[in-house]
Specification:
single chain; mainly alpha; 7 helices; about 70% helix
Length: about 200
């Protein structure tokens, strides 16, 4: 008989992959993000703005569900450790969606009803979300890189297999990198328009 699996082995393998329910929540969040982004295409935006709005909608929807998922994980499992870099990125971008999407939705609804002026002007919140959130990703990712948070840990001594990274951490890193790429695109739009 082989050695017994470690006591925490089952929990680590459970954290390594998302459950079907968690995947469904993320897909639903992307659907909500696309629902928020698609009305912007009625105004026939430029190709650059189309990429920005569509990318912001997809990434924003996936980010939106991160806040409740991460808070639920902390509450239900009693985890008191600080967020790793991936969870930090996911939580920060999700918070931006939770704070800026309600004014966008309220403003669009009041515009659709013909209220003039609208209850909330959605353009300010749209600019903050679709331009500010990607730029925030560039700043935070650069800070995490400079601070040494995003590097491989080097173990001394014997070779041990690398520890499995929980899926929330990996997904947050991928999501943060997606936002950072969108942020670099925003920066390129800014520099192209300023230095023509």
């Amino acid at each position: 008989m082989g050695p017994a699996p470690p006591a925490g082995g089952r929990r680590r393998s459970r954290d390594a992959r998302p459950t079907i329910g968690e995947l469904m929540i993320v897909v639903a969040g992307v659907g909500v993000g696309l629902t928020l982004a698609l009305p912007a295409f009625r105004d026939e935006p430029s190709p650059g703005e189309s990429i920005l709005v569509l990318g912001g909608g997809v990434l924003g929807g996936a980010s939106l569900v991160g806040v409740p998922l991460l808070l639920w994980e902390r509450r239900s499992r009693g985890v008191r450790r600080r967020f790793g870099p991936g969870k930090l990125l996911w939580f920060a971008h999700g918070t931006a969606a939770w704070l800026l999407w309600p004014p966008i939705i309220l403003g669009r609804r009041s515009n659709a009803r013909g209220q003039s002026p609208p209850i909330v002007d959605p353009s300010a919140a749209e600019i903050c979300f679709f331009y500010g959130t990607p730029l925030m990703a560039v700043y935070v990712t650069a800070s995490l890189l400079a601070g040494g948070w995003l590097r491989r840990s080097r173990r001394r001594g014997g070779r041990r297999p690398p520890a499995q990274i929980p899926w929330r951490e990996r997904f947050g890193l991928v999501l943060g990198m997606g936002w950072a790429v969108l942020g670099l695109y925003v920066l390129s739009m800014i520099y192209r328009s300023k230095f023509r």
